[in-house]
Amino acid sequence: MAKKTSRKKTSRKKKRYINAQFLWLLSALAGAALLISFSLMEMFPGSWTLILGGVLAVILFVTLILSSRNQKSYAIKTVNLVLCGAMLVLAVLMPVYQNKISDLFNIVTGNVSNINFYVINEKYRAAHPEVFAESEVSSQLSDHLNDLFITSVTADAVNSATAVSKVREDYGVDIQTTDRPSYLEALQALYENEGDVLIMSASFEAMIADNEEYEKFRNDLKIIGTVQREVENKIPQSSVTITKEPFIVFFGGNDEEGDLYLEGKTDVDMTVTVNPNTHQIAIVSLPRDSYVDNPAFGYGDKLTHLGMQGIHNTLSGLGDYLGHEINNYFIINFTTFRNIINAIGGVDIYNEYEFTALDGQYFPEGMIHLEGEYALMFVRERYSLPDGDFGRNYHQQQVMRAMIDKIASPEVIVHVDALLEALEGTFLTNLSSDSIYAFCRKQLEENIDWNIVNYHVIGDIDFAECASAPGMELSVVFPYPNQVEFVSQVMSDIINGEIVEQQELPYGSYYTETGEQNGW
User: Is the pLDDT at 504 greater than 50, yes or no?
Assistant: First the structure.
């Protein structure tokens, strides 16, 4: 019997592969998404969108030709795949960055005032039994309703009244108060046990700590309650078109960490006058202790203290003093400053003389690179400088100029993410987001090389009664009128479109070119 032979049927599977043209199509769609996302970024100029569109068109055209001729080429498919992935990632990141930038202006900060209730703490009481019979003190405000509360209505009527009213509302009690002309005297009354609880806005803490006698007062007190008052911003959003019109911005900073508020002292007092048409900038700084009129009280005060009644008070007083209307502000504290310096990779400045700061940090003469903490030490130090506070002002100007130069350069693009993180919720300004976007577009499109001049006014140190501390004489600076007149004219020249050059500031004198003498 013949054997039946059976043939094994073998089935071959066709190899399937992704067509290079299909991957190119995905790349083209990703490129279109990237171009649309990029065009929606408000800070980038329209010309950049056209350039990006042209670059993408060339790349896609070349890859299309290659994909058509080599549909099975592994190398071509890899190129298309990498292009597709890269463009999709960028298309997704663009809206993320746009939202981050929008959030910078949508986060509302600084619109509250914290009013604290302070008592002398147990440690200080125990160390001074001759003043305080008992060392124990309750940390609950409700346990002090029958005590005597110390206020300073003259210095801060609104916050004092708000705190008293809030206690009445919450506890149904009209507390007993004793008033002092200034918070320095109010604090002294608390130390001398002439009252039990001090009512004071938290913004006055820094002002009191500037006084050598009370620089460590926070160590002796504890807070037993806090009331918040909503602060009205009396400076409207700026209406100036900063890409076409000259403008002045007040740059203020306080020597504190943490949150920013519309009410508070300013340790850095600087005006930046900008003419976007002639590409001129003038940075003018005044000593924080400059003796100027305080509009809130109608007589002389330290410039730094004008902000205790709000940023509008600082802009009004400084504007009157310099003879220019100042309608714009940008406020930071040293937390923001340190973060910005780190975000842009530090700055390089020329240090004119070597010195060692009080914390031991050494700064050599010559070109030095300053990172965040190092830069912060550089601009804060004054005690080891030959010209003290005036030298500190000069250092602040140096770093400010270096920051402007770096932020205005194309190099900042690689630091965008870090810069956005550094700025989030850490500055106050009335410049609109649209204005700032427009200014960024102008700078990026034209790559403007700004001509920057800078001056720091000095003066004589003396003592004078200040509006913020009635009846007390504080150390102040009387700026030289001829220097004030000089910088005011520089600001006018820039606003009027004149070309200015860096000059030596006139030697300090109490006589101006018109023969007028200082009025103080």
Answer: yes
**Contact at 8 Å (CB) between 265 and 305?**
yes
Identify the domain containing residue 326 by its residue range.
247-335+389-495
The residue from 106, 123, 148 where one domain ends is 106
Considering the entire predicted model, what is its pTM? Answer: 0.80
**Cβ neighbours for 103, distance < 8 A, ≥ 6 positions apart:** 424
Tell me the pLDDT tens digit for each residue of 407-462. 877 777 677 777 777 777 778 888 888 888 888 888 888 888 899 999 999 999 99
Q: What's 160's domain CATH number?
A: 3.40.190.10
CA–CA separation, 409 and 446 (whole Å)? 11
Q: How far apart are CA 403 and CA 376, in angstroms?
A: 13
Task: Give the relative orientation of helices 311-322 and 481-495 as an angle to the nearest 10 degrees.
Answer: 100
Q: Is residue 322 part of a domain?
A: yes
Reported as half-sphere exposure (CB side, CA atoms, 13 A), residue 505 has a value of: 23
Please identify, among 46, 75, 106, the residue that sits at the C-terminal boundary of a domain.
106
Q: How far apart are CA 509 and CA 489, in angstroms?
A: 16
| Same domain, residue pair 324 and 398 | yes
Indicate if 439 and 323 belong to the same structural domain: yes
On whether the CB atoms of residues 270 and 350 are closer than 8 A, the answer is no
Residue 518 is predicted with a pLDDT of 46
DSSP letters of 87-149? HHHHHHHHHHHHHHHHHHHH---S-EEEEEEEEE-HHHHHH-TTT-S-----S-GGGGTTSEE
Provide the number of structural domains found in the chain: 3
Q: Residue 474: helix, strand or coil by DSSP?
A: strand
Please check whether residues 39 and 117 belong to one and the same domain: no
- 200/187 Cα distance (integer angstroms): 9
> Residue 21's CB: how many other CB atoms inside 10 A?
15
Does any domain span residue 516?
Answer: no
Residues 185 and 155 in one domain: yes
